[in-house]
Amino acid sequence: MVHTTIPGVEAQIRYGKRHFLKNGHHAALIHAAKNKVSFMMFNATEIEPVKGVLRSMGNGERKTADITEGGAVDYDRLAGLLTKASSSL
Known about the structure:
Elements: H1 2-5, E1 10-14, E2 17-22, E3 25-32, E4 37-41, E5 55-57, E6 62-67, H2 75-86
Antiparallel strand pairs: 1-2, 2-3, 3-4, 4-6, 5-6
């Protein structure tokens, strides 16, 4: 989904997590934990948190969606939010 949403994105492993960079700037990361997968978008200050879907991290510049086993994932919605967050990178 990230590669389709952000053409030319570069994927790297940093600190044991998959990081995605656009023009050398962090665009997103994926972190797998025991009970969930977290998908974080950077440069997301203008994206509003969505209760139960997308939470704000730090000063609001990052937004995270937590994906749990058996939970529905709206990839189209995440892709739209990622497009918005990465558009200025």
